Amino acid sequence: MSAVATRRAWAELLRLPALFTVPGDALAGAAATGLRPGHRTLLAIGSSLCLYEAGMALNDWADRAEDAVERPERPLPSGRIAPPAALTAAAALTAAGLALASRAGRPALVVAGALAGTVWAYDLGLKHTPAGPAAMATARGLDLLLGATATAGPDRGPRAPATAAAPSAAALAAHTLAVTAVSRREAQGGSSTAPLAALATTATLTTLIGTTRRAPVGGRVRRRGRPGLRAGAGLVGRPDLRNAADTARRALPGALALAYAGTTAKPLFHAALNPSPPLTQRAVGGGIRAMIPLQAALAARTGAPVTALLTAALAPAARRFARKVSVT
User: Fold this and answer.
1) Could you point out which of 24, 163, 235, 281 has its C-alpha 20 to 30 Å from the C-alpha of 267?
2) Is residue 287 classed exposed, middle or buried when 0-12, 13-18 and 19+ CB atoms within 10 A define those classes?
């Protein structure tokens, strides 16, 4: 197999376009703490990316027999990647993710360890049980908490940042739970129940995340950063500009919430009307891409508009690369 074909096979195995949905977890977690993202946030993002890809490789290794029947074109059943190579990649990526988290402090390592354990438990045992969607939702919520605990640093301990980030983590987990429930039928189709439930979840989350909320660490808001990182910074003495900035900041969560709904609602509606495998897979893909505007809205509602916009900027790249490699 040529080098190009090998790279293509690994891109399919790891679902590389889905990587664009990962950094927003840590960024939303950092925003929830009220602290400016720093080098520890970057370590959390690196850890999240490694653990996410470990889960992708492990998923296909665990499902190789099932995929041989339902998805024979996938890299493992087609023989383009050997199963031992996929398992080795999963183990190496897990180790790398934990190593990066350890650099951000002990609280971050504790959360990353729980995340890694959840990922392996899901892929190796829980995926095909009723607990599967809840396990996946837990993993995504923990990923957001990893960003919060890493950003807060080792001196604060895990409790204060986790408490501040809990509402955002719960929102992301609820969306993940709904999308995972839909994905359980993506190869067979035939059920409108999960897409309808996911539509209801989307409507509820759109309403909840479309408002601004200030999130404290340890009971009070902590905002640190250079001028220009916060909406309205540097506009003292210019009430017209300051008012415009405040208006934009207040409107941003609602706009991003609508972007979230627009990304996921239409394909879910089509899958509910016709739960065929192609439309169900399209709904799952839309739900995965919708995590980016959801993460951005969560950051915006906790008073971090710049972080929200940086997160939202990942969406075009995710959409572009998803046309080349499937995210499901």
Assistant:
1) 24
2) buried
